[in-house]
Amino acid sequence: xxxxxxxxxxxxxxxxxxxxxxxxxxxxxxxxxxxxxxxxxxxxxxxxxxxxxxxxxxxxxxxxxxxxxxxxxxxxxxxxxxxxxxxxxxxxxxxxxxxxxxxxxxxxxxxxxxxxxxxxxxxxxxxxxxxxxxxxxxxxxxxxxxxxxxxxxxxxxxxxxxxxxxxxxxxxxxxxxxxxxxxxxxxxxxxxxxxxxxxxxxxxxxx
Amino acid sequence: xxxxxxxxxxxxxxxxxxxxxxxxxxxxxxxxxxxxxxxxxxxxxxxxxxxxxxxxxxxxxxxxxxxxxxxxxxxxxxxxxxxxxxxxxxxxxxxxxxxxxxxxxxxxxxxxxxxxxxxxxxxxxxxxxxxxxxxxxxxxxxxxxxxxxxxxxxxxxxxxxxxxxxxxxxxxxxxxxxxxxxxxxxxxxxxxxxxxxxxxxxxxxxxxxxxxxxxxxxxxxxxxxxxxxxxxxxxxxxxxxxxxxxxxxxxxxxxxxxxxxxxxxxxxxxxxxxxxxxxxxxxxxxxxxxxxxxxxxxxxxxxxxxxxxxxxxxxxxxxxxxxxxxxxxxxxxxxxxxxxxxxxxxxxxxxxxxxxxxxxxxxxxxxxxxxxxxxxxxxxxxxxxxxxxxxxxxxxxxxxxxxxxxxxxxxxxxxxxxxxxxxxxxxxxxxxxxxxxxxxxxxxxxxxxxxxxxxxxxxxxxxxxxx
Lengths: 207, 467
Hints:
The complex is a heterodimer of chains A (207) and B (467).
Chain A: E1 16-24, H1 31-34, H2 54-59, E2 76-79, H3 91-99, E3 103-106, H4 111-119, E4 124-126, H5 129-141, E5 146-150, E6 155-158, E7 161-164, H6 169-177, H7 183-188, H8 190-198
Parallel strand pairs in A: 1-2, 2-3, 3-4
Antiparallel strand pairs in A: 1-5, 5-6, 6-7
Chain B: H1 5-13, E1 14-17, E2 23-26, E3 29-32, H2 38-47, E4 57-60, H3 77-93, E5 96-98, H4 108-115, E6 123-126, E7 140-143, H5 146-155, E8 157-160, E9 164-171, H6 180-191, E10 199-204, H7 206-210, H8 213-221, E11 230-233, H9 237-243, H10 253-265, E12 275-280, E13 287-289, E14 297-299, H11 312-325, E15 340-343, H12 351-361, E16 371-374, H13 379-387, H14 390-397, E17 400-401, E18 422-425, E19 441-444, H15 447-456
Parallel strand pairs in B: 3-4, 3-6, 4-5, 6-7, 9-10, 9-12, 10-11, 15-16, 15-18, 16-17, 18-19
Antiparallel strand pairs in B: 1-2, 2-8, 13-14
Helix pairs in contact in B: 2-5, 6-8, 12-14, 12-15
């Protein structure tokens, strides 16, 4: 097998994303709820979108927003605090992306979930509790409302009203420039990797 | 001013700063399992890439293992397909693979330390959030997603933002019947399930100093449950004694050199932390979760709280938890009836966990109607327990004695709750549906408390049983 330089950048960039919203209310929504473990018995990510929030959807009364036809086709998932906590399974953001989600806005995110999303080119913006509440109310009142998510300006605009929604500068720049796939950059430092490894006594077996 | 272990190890492994401001960090040990790796290997194939350091990469199969019988092909076709995939991937890319029949078969976070792969001063990554377990040896160990598994396979590096470091200092001594698990549940309750976001946790103080390596692993294991991506304990003589003689640990003069280097990585006495939390370990009681996240817990002699006991922002979560768990505010924690008792998982399936559970059981029997199982974390733990006769004690009491695997912690194998069953569990997550039934209920507690609950048929204080 030969080494070839990986694609350093994606031709796509993530500057502005427009779309309808879907509110998923609740604190600490974990990755087991986003994609129950039984659907991790697979060697691909194909088909995971059908099972996003499967158990929550089965037990929901009234219907879970993912089953509410008014929200079908939504691209902006609006959540509360510590969204995506728990397991490191990338299957969680993969399932949501395959359902149709292109961007997340929440009061806060769990760290591994956030990192997984960025690695997949899915922006995760953080808004205040009031901001999230306002967005949820707006899309619940009229699910056809279009949200304009501006990752560069760090705003979400709905009905002419802008809500602040931020992202740390590093990952934000990666998304804006289309450089969220770190692999190309990591590979480019091949010599420096070998040099660093060579300085670690355990790599040399402490000899 | 001296540095923390975290800073030293981070700097040792920093390859360069990336344009994003993140650090390109060399990964000293990459552990791989069947769930989060097949897509990563496929991404490598799609891009025509090789594994850069196959000799620093070790794979096993644990999540999908049926613990009642280890026989190929597995009865579950999907699980069998996953085993075939990891066999092919590790074979094609030249990676060491501990298969279902290997002497060191077991949960990845149990066998890494057993083999001596896990060592102080390293960076360790694995596509599993409980990778923080390995931090017990004094290293930086964190869970990663599949795209990052791909990055580590291809480059032995990760793009990482440096977290802050919080020292959690645990004074005093844990009382009889109070274990590492109770401490970690106490910490999560106190700091919250997102209290650790953005932090690495350094656990220390008298209580950690006195703990054996297995107890330290239980504490570090659940760092992620408190939001911290990694947690560690500074290496000391206990660490070195554990490592000496393990298959992947150097011996002779190399061991002495290793020990000197490991010692040099411990945080300095005057190291400065971004935050310090002080905990009185003597005040901790056996702890049990009553809700749907690991921060929703109480001492066994407390009562189920009411939403009004919490800040406004948490009340809806408490209401949701009480409704799901079907528990009423004000009722005692002790006496909650259970249907299943599970001793196992990467948190609490090591030999000391099994010994404590066995000690509680003594000659007692599992309550009629309770399904009870003990699932050792590895084949080595199982063998050791059998040499000590623990399995006979468990079997005579009415427990099932299983093969090693992740089992009922996460329900990717046949071990699952059914319907609304309530499980006293030594695992790490009490999320809705976590143990395989969408309506199943989990009460997290120490293995000793699980054994006590199995005998009583309900949550009960383990302390009187130990006298």
